Amino acid sequence: MSRAGLAQGAASTGAERTGRYVSTGAPPQRGDRPAQQFSGRLLEPGQGVAVVAPAGGVEAEAYAAGLGILAARYRIVLAYDPLGAAGTHREPSSALPYLSANDDTRTQAIHAALRHPEVTAVFCARGGYGCMRLLERLDDTALRSRGLPIVGFSDVTALHAWAARLGVRSIHGPVVTQLPRLPRPQLDALFALLEGRVADLTLRGLRGLRPGRARGPLFAGNLAVLAHLCGTPYFPPLAGRILLLEEVDEAPYRVDRLLTQLLLAGELQRAAGIVVGQLVGCDATRGSTWSRSEPLRGAAVAAERLAALEVPVAFGAAVGHGNENVALPQGAWSELDTVGGTLKITV
User: Fold this and answer.
1) 188 and 103 within one domain
2) Residue 182 is part of a domain; what is its CATH number?
3) Residues 121 and 161 in one domain
4) How far apart are CA 37 and CA 12, in angstroms?
5) Would 33 be classed as within a structural domain?
6) Sequence-ordered alpha helix ranges (H) in 136-248
7) Confidence of residue 190 (pLDDT cuts 50, 70, 90)
8) What is the count of structural domains for the chain?
9) Contact predicate 183/326, CB 8 Å
10) d(CA 329, CA 41)
């Protein structure tokens, strides 16, 4: 989707800028607006934010550039330090090589960010893997008491699922290391969303697979993380919701397997509608083990798996691991029109 594919509505009123994130209560029925809507704790330029690394470590140059973008707008109160300076939550000697730090240290960093009185939002440095390991350790009260938005995607889907089950709105949006690669309009859109200057936004140019319209709260997340959460107490409520999926570096047969897991569990059938975002690095070249004759695209496999669903399905959202990643408010009321190719989100 081009930059023109994201349209934003008018700025929120002063009254809309007050309040806290509240629970939506029971999952809504398909097409019915829930009785309670999320309301938001909103940021202002110059306010304090925290940066944590709940999963993998970071590439230093991209991380430094992303921190610079954040620091130009907000005051960074707490931040992960990949070099392990004193007072940071980096402990290379006690962490597995694919984690930013051990489980206790990463959990403590999240709790410190959520409890710090000057922090108004928590940004995630990077995805990778590791957030699932923390779910049994996280303190629900730390998140629910102040309702701070957690910003991130990919492996951070596990934290979005945690927030969704507690009725706290998080932001499915870029991690800090991705910020330098995003077009300026999407950075501005992220800040506008966090600061309450957006009443609605619309993803345009979607390609319909199954025609129809659907309405419900939004949940966006990574396909692999959702499949691995399936069957655990931490799986997010999807009934009656618009589900947006993205993925990276999974071979087409793995995309098949992940979707099949969610289908066999009956979870995709419970959604009101499904949108597929970017599937980066999910194609197989001709002559490979998984595509002997012609190139096989992960999107084609996903379409084959989702075609039998009796809900509207669309592809092509600029959400994921590419050079675009539109920030989306989890739990916001959404209207999917796969014929018109739009997903309208009321913030």
Assistant:
1) yes
2) 3.40.50.10740
3) yes
4) 15
5) yes
6) 140-144, 157-166, 184-194, 223-229
7) very high
8) 2
9) no
10) 12
- What domain range includes position 260? 201-346
Tens-digit pLDDT profile for residues 19-42: 222 222 333 343 444 433 344 568
**At residue 106, what is the residue type?**
R
The tokens 């921190």 sit on which residue?
67
Most distant CA atoms of the chain, gap in Å: 59
Q: How far apart are CA 116 and CA 100, in angstroms?
A: 21
Does 4 fall in a domain? no
Task: Looking at the structure, tell me whether residues 237 and 325 fall in a common domain.
Answer: yes
d(CA 167, CA 31): 20
Of 12, 100, 154, 334, which one is the catalytic site residue? 154
Please give the single-letter amino acid code of residue 298.
G
Annotated catalytic residue: which of 160, 172, 228, 321?
321
Domain end marker among 143, 171, 198: 198
The tokens 């697979």 sit on which residue? 209
Give pLDDT tens digits for 49-94.
999 999 999 999 999 999 999 999 999 999 999 876 444 444 444 5
Clarify whether 321 is annotated catalytic. Answer: yes
Catalytic entry in 160, 195, 228, 246: 246
Residues 299 and 248 in one domain: yes
Last residue of a domain, one of 198, 224, 248: 198
Identify the CATH number of the domain in which residue 288 sits: 3.50.30.60
Interval 7-17: pLDDT, tens: 444 333 332 22
| pLDDT at residue number 83 | 74
> Would residue 293 show up in a list of annotated catalytic residues for this protein?
no
Catalytic, 154? Answer yes
